[in-house]
Design goal:
The protein has one domain: Periplasmic binding protein-like II (D-Maltodextrin-Binding Protein, domain 2, 3-Layer(aba) Sandwich), CATH 3.40.190.10. 17% of the residues lie in helices and 23% in strands. It has five helices and twelve strands. The longest helix has 12 residues.
């Protein structure tokens, strides 16, 4: 259970090492695959898969690898989970529960921007959670956000979440669901999100940004030099599809 006072991180390395861990895990996971690839520049990591990434939009995605790329590389989540599966700060730098544990207030990192330069704010968080629960979108995360009654934007960097019942701790969905940009998706009817250009040309706010895509063959991401929380050592991240298994 989270204490009632604001919680802050005492783990200085938790953000800096995240992308590097992702790339190392991916290399180990797909180590049985052998891919024919053109020579790559130093600092490039390749993740091989037997299928194309499902989408660049995390609110309509089911495929596990797509979710991992979205969650750890392309976007950020409100909080993260540590090795003991306890929530630690990420986009939210600190938070405080109400005494009855039916609401929690988050203070957000005011320096985080989308890859097009627009600031990421509490409005984006509220928009994401509301969209995920919208039946018109039919998000696979709809049941996960059902515990949230409403999201109240208090300022650009402060948001308050109200829950339908008292909770002992933050729901895992806050560490799993990436935040999406309202300024790019807010005017798009939610029933059309799966076929919208954002699905194949996403704009994120994470340590890697989308660079290019060859349909059915490759997605390419490059390091986001403006990422304020920390970024990995790899200069780019490529996801090729056509591989053979040894």
């Amino acid at each position: 259970m989270m204490p009632p006072e604001f919680r802050t991180s005492t783990r200085a390395t938790s953000f800096r090492r995240l992308p590097a861990r992702l790339l190392t895990l991916a290399a180990a996971t797909f180590g049985l695959w052998s891919c024919r690839a053109a020579p790559r520049e130093p600092g490039t990591a390749v993740i091989a898969s037997g299928t194309d990434l499902e989408s660049g939009n995390p609110l309509v995605t089911v495929h596990p690898l797509s979710r991992q790329v979205q969650r750890h590389a392309l976007f950020v989540t409100l909080v993260r989970l540590d090795s003991a599966l306890q929530p630690v700060p990420y986009f939210a730098s600190q938070w405080r529960w109400d005494d009855d544990h039916r609401a929690v207030t988050f203070i957000l990192d005011s320096t985080l921007t989308w890859h097009d330069g627009v600031p990421t704010t509490a409005t984006d968080v509220a928009f994401t959670l509301t969209a995920a629960g919208d039946s018109l979108l039919g998000s696979p995360r709809r049941s996960d956000v059902a515990v949230i009654e409403r999201a109240e934007v208090l300022s650009r960097s402060v948001i308050r979440l109200h829950f339908r019942a008292p909770l002992p701790s933050l729901p895992f969905i806050l560490a799993e669901l990436p935040i999406v940009p309202k300024h790019l998706l807010g005017s798009v009817p939610r029933a059309e999100w799966r076929g919208h250009a954002f699905a194949t040309n996403p704009v994120g706010n994470g340590p890697f940004r989308f660079a290019s895509r060859r349909a059915g063959r490759q997605w390419r991401f490059v390091r986001n030099e403006r990422f304020p929380i920390g970024h990995g050592r790899a200069a780019s991240l490529a996801h090729p599809r056509r591989c053979r298994r040894r």
